[in-house]
Structures are given as structure tokens and as C-alpha cells.
Amino acid sequence: xxxxxxxxxxxxxxxxxxxxxxxxxxxxxxxxxxxxxxxxxxxxxxxxxxxxxxxxxxxxxxxxxxxxxxxxxxxxxxxxxxxxxxxxxxxxxxxxxxxxxxxxxxxxxxxxxxxxxxxxxxxxxxxxxxxxxxxxxxxxxxxxxxxxxxxxxxxxxxxxxxxxxx
Length: 166
Fold this sequence. Notes:
By secondary structure, the chain is of the alpha/beta class. It has helices at residues 4-20, 34-40, 58-65, 69-75, 80-92, 142-162, and strands at 24-28, 49-54, 98-104, 119-126, 131-137. A hairpin with a 4-residue loop joins strand 4 (119-126) and strand 5.
């Protein structure tokens, strides 16, 4: 459910992408398409949003994005390594200039001592070879973890798109 803060971020991102002549692709797991929902709620987003991949299962990550079985077995679905491969796969399987990926454990269960509920891994990749990954440990219930994840994804995409370094 996109709220006004998320919609504002999505709108600002759209303006920044349009200004650069870029398009965006997304690969989402724990957010289940919430980032794409915020983006497509913006009128005219088809000018800067190419596509989204909702890859909740490991099989979907492998089949749709090219995440390797080795990465999943060595690092798990919730890892920066998997998020990285998801973002790179979204770039490869789209016409986008920039892509972002998110995978995590939103709860209520599914966490471990090593990766507790609220562990979320992000990746951002650009066609020019740029790649960035980060993990966060978020608190709150399932809805709050997912919402903060969406907000983080949009904020970093906006920062990257506005950056002169990219």
C-alpha cells in the first residue's frame, strides 16, 4: 500500500530518471512488488520504468534472473551476494539503465540467529558496471520491515540517479 511519502519518493525518482534519459528495472523478493506498485502509481511511469521481477522463490530467482544455485546454497536467498545477482539479472533481462534488487526476511518467522527477522539485503546496479550492495537489520512487524525496505530502495535509487558519479 503506497503512502504519500513513498509516492513522493517514487515521483522524485521518476523525474530524476527522466532527466537522465534512464529506465529502471526491479527485482523484488520480500517486498512482493511493493516498490513497483509505488512506481507504477505515478502517471507516466512507463516512460522510465521498464519492468519488475517478483522472484519470491529460489526457483524464480534462478529462472528469471540467473541467480546461481551455488550462490543460493553458499550464501542463502537473503544475502548481499544474492541481491547482487538479482540486480545484475534484472539489468541483463531488461532494457534498463539501472536496476535494483531486494531480498529479506520480513517475518513473522523464517529468521535465524545469523539472519534474524528484519534482515534485508539490497543491491543497485547500472549498465555502466556500477554495483552497490548493503544489508540492513530492520525492526518492527512484517508490514514495517517491508515498508522501510521499499523506502530505502526508493531513497537510494534517487540518490544514485541524482549523483554525478554514476
